[in-house]
C-alpha cells in the first residue's frame, strides 16, 4: 500500500517564499525558488544555471552577492518555462552571454500564442475553478518578460570560464523541446533542470493537465540514458536538493530508465494486441522492483499520453469521432429518455459501491443539461471526495483539481439550497 500524504509533496518544492542558499560544493550554490537558481564560481568570473522566477530574481541577487567572485560571464537556461528564466532580467550583467537550446524561440512562440488557453486551464487547477485572463504582471508565471538570447546551440555547446569547463547537451525529452543539461566533466557534476520533472524518481508528466505538446517518451528514455552515461558524482535537479554518489546515481537512473521503458513497452504491446486505451490505463502495474512515485505525473496518464502520441486522435471506438458532433451533444437526449433523477440514483449507487469514476460520467450528463440539479451536484461531490481519498494526496495536479472542483460544487450546492428555501 502506497503512503498517504497530508498534502502533495510537490507543494513544498514549488513554494515561492523560500530564502535560503544550499552550498553544494565550495564553488556551487543553489538559491531556492519555484525552480532553483544555481551559481557556479571560478577563477575568472561566474556562471548561472537558471535564474528562477521574476520576483525570485531579486532574492537570488541578494543571496548570491557575497558569494560572487567576478563578472557574470554566462547564464544558461535549461528550458523555456518562465520559472527557469524569470530572474534573468535582474541577474544578468552587461557582458553576460545568455545560452539556450535552439528550439527556444519556437517554445516561447507557441506559449505566447496559447497563453490565454493555458492560463484558463491553470486557473481551473490552482484557483478553485475560476478562470482568469493572463496577467501582465512580471511577477506572474504567464507575465514573465521575454529575454534576449546571445547563443543558441542545437546538439551540444562547450565553453570554459577560468578553471571551470562546461558542456551543454540538448535533451528534447524533458518538459520542453528546448530542454538541455549542463555537465561539468572535471568535477563530474550535472545540472539536469527539469529533465526529470520537478520531482526526482517520479513518473514523467508526458502531457500535463493544463495542456502542452505531448512529450516523447522515447526521447525521455534516451535522455535518462545520456545522463547515466556521464557517470555523475553529483546530480542537481531544477527543484529539491542535490543527489550524490556515483554508484547511487547509476542505480537510480537505471531504475528510472527501466520503469519508463516498462510503461512504454506495456502500452505498445497492448496496442498491438488490440487492447483499448481505457483497459490499458486501468490494468497497468509496475513490478515491485520498478515502482516509482507519482507526485507529478501518473502511470495511467503516461499510458494515455504514449497511446495518443503514437495513435493520434482517432481510435475507431466511434465513427462519429470523424465529425464535428461530440458525445456531449446527445447527453440531453439520454437524460430526457432515462430521466435525470434515474441517472442520479444510478450515480449514487456507484458512489455507494465505491465506483466513483462511473458516477462522475453520469453526473457529467445530468449537469450538462441541468447545471443546478441538486441531486447530481451532491452525487458528483461525493464521487469526487472518494476520488480524492483514493488519490492519497500524492499527485499535485490531481489533488488540486479535485479539491478545487469540490469547493466549487459546495458553493453551487449552497446557492441552490438558498434558492429553494
**Can you list the strand order of the major beta sheet?**
1-2-3-4-5-6-7
E-strand count: 13
Assign the CATH superfamily of the largest domain. Answer: Metallo-beta-lactamase domain
CATH architecture of the largest domain: 4-Layer Sandwich
Question: Which secondary-structure class do the elements indicate?
Answer: alpha/beta
Strand residues, percent: 15-25%
- In total, how many domains does the architecture comprise? 2
CATH class of the largest domain: Alpha Beta
From the N-terminal CA to the C-terminal CA, the straight-line distance is 45 Å
Largest sheet: 7 strands, mixed
Portion of residues within helices: 40-55%
Point out poorly predicted stretches.
128-139
User: Helices and strands, in N-to-C order?
Assistant: HEEEEHEHHEHHEEEEEHEEHHHHHHHH
Kindly state the mean pLDDT as a whole number? 92
Q: How many alpha or pi helices?
A: 15
Spatial shape: elongated
CATH topology of the largest domain: Metallo-beta-lactamase, Chain A
What is the C-alpha radius of gyration, as a whole number of Å? 24 Å
Brief synopsis:
By secondary structure, the chain is an alpha/beta fold.
Amino acid at each position: 500500500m502506497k503512503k498517504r500524504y497530508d498534502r502533495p509533496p510537490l507543494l513544498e518544492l514549488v513554494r515561492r517564499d523560500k530564502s535560503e542558499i544550499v552550498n553544494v560544493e565550495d564553488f556551487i550554490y543553489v538559491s531556492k525558488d519555484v525552480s532553483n537558481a544555481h551559481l557556479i564560481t571560478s577563477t575568472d568570473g561566474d556562471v548561472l544555471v537558471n535564474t528562477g522566477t521574476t520576483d525570485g530574481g531579486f532574492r537570488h541577487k541578494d543571496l548570491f552577492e557575497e558569494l560572487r567572485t567576478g563578472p557574470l560571464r554566462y547564464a544558461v537556461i535549461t528550458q523555456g518555462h518562465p520559472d527557469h528564466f524569470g530572474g534573468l532580467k535582474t541577474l544578468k550583467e552587461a557582458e553576460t552571454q545568455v545560452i539556450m537550446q535552439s528550439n527556444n524561440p519556437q517554445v516561447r512562440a507557441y506559449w505566447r500564442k496559447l497563453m490565454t488557453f493555458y492560463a484558463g486551464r491553470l486557473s481551473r487547477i490552482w484557483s478553485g475553478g475560476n478562470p482568469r485572463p493572463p496577467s501582465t504582471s512580471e511577477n506572474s508565471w504567464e507575465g514573465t518578460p521575454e529575454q534576449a538570447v546571445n547563443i543558441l546551440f542545437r546538439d551540444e555547446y562547450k565553453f570554459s570560464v577560468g578553471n571551470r569547463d562546461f558542456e551543454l547537451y540538448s535533451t528534447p525529452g524533458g518538459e520542453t523541446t528546448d530542454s538541455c543539461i549542463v555537465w561539468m566533466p572535471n568535477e563530474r557534476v550535472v545540472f539536469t533542470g527539469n529533465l526529470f520533472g520537478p520531482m526526482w524518481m517520479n513518473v514523467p508528466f508526458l502531457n500535463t493537465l493544463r495542456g502542452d505538446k505531448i512529450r516523447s517518451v522515447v526521447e525521455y528514455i534516451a535522455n535518462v540514458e545520456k545522463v547515466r552515461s556521464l557517470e555523475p558524482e553529483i546530480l542537481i535537479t531544477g527543484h529539491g536538493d542535490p543527489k550524490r554518489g556515483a554508484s547511487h546515481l547509476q542505480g537510480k537512473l537505471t531504475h528510472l530508465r527501466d520503469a519508463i521503458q516498462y510503461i512504454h513497452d506495456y502500452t505498445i504491446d497492448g496496442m498491438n494486441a488490440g487492447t483499448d486505451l481505457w483497459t490499458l490505463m486501468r490494468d497497468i502495474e509496475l513490478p515491485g522492483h520498478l515502482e516509482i512515485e507519482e507526485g507529478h505525473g501518473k502511470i495511467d496518464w503516461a499510458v494515455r499520453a504514449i497511446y495518443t502520441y503514437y495513435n493520434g486522435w482517432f481510435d475507431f471506438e466511434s465513427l462519429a469521432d470523424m465529425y464535428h458532433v461530440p458525445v456531449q451533444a446527445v447527453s440531453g437526449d439520454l437524460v430526457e429518455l432515462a430521466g435525470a433523477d434515474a441517472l442520479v440514483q444510478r450515480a449514487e449507487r456507484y458512489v455507494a459501491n465505491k465506483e466513483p469514476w462511473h458516477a462522475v460520467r453520469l453526473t457529467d450528463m445530468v449537469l450538462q443539461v441541468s447545471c443546478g440539479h441538486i441531486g447530481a451536484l451532491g452525487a458528483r461531490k461525493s464521487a469526487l471526495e472518494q476520488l480524492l481519498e483514493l488519490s492519497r494526496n500524492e499527485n499535485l495536479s490531481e489533488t488540486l483539481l479535485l479539491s478545487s472542483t469540490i469547493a466549487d460544487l459546495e458553493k453551487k450546492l449552497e446557492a441552490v439550497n438558498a434558492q429553494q428555501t
